[in-house]
Amino acid sequence: MRVLIGAAALLLATSLLAAGAADMAQLKPAICGSRATCTIAKLTPAGKSESGTELSVAEVHLGVADRAQPDDACHDNDGNEDGGQEYWLIEGNAAPRMLLKLCNDGYGAA
Fold first, then answer.
1. Could you tell me which residues come within 8 angstroms of residue 56 by beta carbon, excluding any fewer than 6 positions away?
2. Which of 36, 60, 79, 90 could form a disulfide linkage to 56, CB 3.0–4.6 angstroms apart?
3. DSSP letter assigned to residue 78
4. Which pTM was predicted?
């Protein structure tokens, strides 16, 4: 019985990962546009809107080439230069909306 439950859980997890990857591939043109180094790192469920529409948040990572301010360096968690991060709200079939744009300039409190 435990083997069947484990197999069912693995099958469900695999199908959810595949669905998430498909969703990210569909969202990439709307979020990234022509930014070549833009990648959608993660799509996180965020409940439902007041109208019942499914919500999620896309975490986007940018490379140095797509930095908003070319002269201002952003840094990842390992101290390497990057283009920062963005968080986008996905609400059903509506166009994604940017929620937050972050750039760790290295001058924050440690």
1. 23, 43, 44, 45, 46, 89, 90
2. 90
3. T
4. 0.74
User: Which amino acid, one-letter code, is at 94?
Assistant: A
| Other CB atoms within 10 A of residue 88 CB | 21
DSSP state of 14: H
Write out the two tokens for 49: 């809107």
Classify the C-alpha dihedral 87-91-92-94 as positive or negative.
Answer: negative
Q: Residue 12's Cα: distance from chain center in Å?
A: 21
What are the C-alpha distances in Å from 71 to residues 63, 81, 85, 102?
Answer: 14, 12, 17, 16
Write out pLDDT tens, residues 34-88: 999 999 999 999 999 999 999 999 999 999 888 877 777 788 888 888 899 999 9
